[in-house]
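Usage example:
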Amino acid sequence: MMRQKISRYIISIMMLLAFVAPLLAQNTSNRQQGRSSQSSQQQKKKKEKKLPEVTYPLMNGIDVGVDVLGPIFKAFGSDFMSAEAMVDVNLYNRYFPTVEIGYGGGKSTNDYDVHIKESAPYFRLGIDYNTFWKKAHGNMLLVGLRYGFSSGKYDVEVPNILDPDYNGGAELTNLTDHIWGDRSNYVHEGMKHTMHWMEFTVGLRANISKRIKMGLMLRIKYRLKASVDTYGDPYYIPGYGRYDSNNAGLTYSIIYQLK
Amino acid sequence: MRKIIPIILLIIGSCLISSMVSCTEDDDCSGNARKMVTANIRSVFSNDSATWEVPDTLDVITVYAIGTDSIIINDKTNATSLSLPLRTNVEETILVFSYTYHVGDTLPQHYDKDTIVFRHHNTPYFMTLDCNFVVKQEISDVSYTTNVLDSIVIVNPTASNDETENIKIYY
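Running the assembly step on the lines above writes:
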């Protein structure tokens, strides 16, 4: 568990640096170029100010993308992994109706020999609004909403009841009765969950080349409704994260503009 | 405008890191404490026109469990309420109530016993990897001797940790 926590910190800092550094570099190079033609840019700016407001057609392109953070987290030691793809339609360069589909799952074991295994598909539907829609540089600051749904199965089991006098394993799981000393196994496979949630999103999408973009999106998630099994809660909901009343998540996407 | 983008990214990054920190806080595992049956001691009085019940006290009570050497409650004095555990891996719990009480206001002391059999349904429930399991318990039936006590009524069959009344024991 501690390794997971440490890797989370490291990955989040690395991803932040990885994303900011190119933009800062891009900014610096732009500044250098800018100095050499400062006077001409000032003239351009004056001209730009006079230009009429940019208008975009209804259909302004279709983007498809994949999230790369899921595999990266897995590579850095996370017990769970998700694979996710998205597609959105650019309407007036302002509105982006979005569909995201994915599949996630994994296995984990704690110090008391409790094994969990979970897997499920998920999808999200929603829309983003590009607050930079007037800007000619083409980068986007997106805010949006999502509805998410996941339905799948999970297993929880304690296959070996350990001797509490020796290693305390089972005793600390509450499966050993401290007063009477009874012990029991716990094996429940194929438990089912369904879950509905809502996300508030804020993200940036930057152009790498003419058709390729990077997207970083922060997601604040709220559980709307969930049904779980009689014998336990799921630990992890693919697409949502830890089974809590609210959650935060991040996606980092490589996006290709189809047209 | 382009200068704003890295600043926004830094702000988002800060939010991200702080959210990661909040996400890795340990779970609150207070909910996985052992569930208990809360029994309130009552007496019933009646006259020609009405019947009413009032809280009662037991002078001295010791509760022990069949199947273990453990004493659940040891010489509790002036007891108005008892917190009783049920077996988590067997669905029948037998408790013995041993009373010590005075006849009148002085000695001699008098001893007596009642045996109470709880039949209940146990559901071990997985919470999280940090909190592990809790055993949910529902009382389905109670049978008892009536050497001292008069009757037992199930008020709420679900055992809990919040001292919600589960049974009334009438003397």
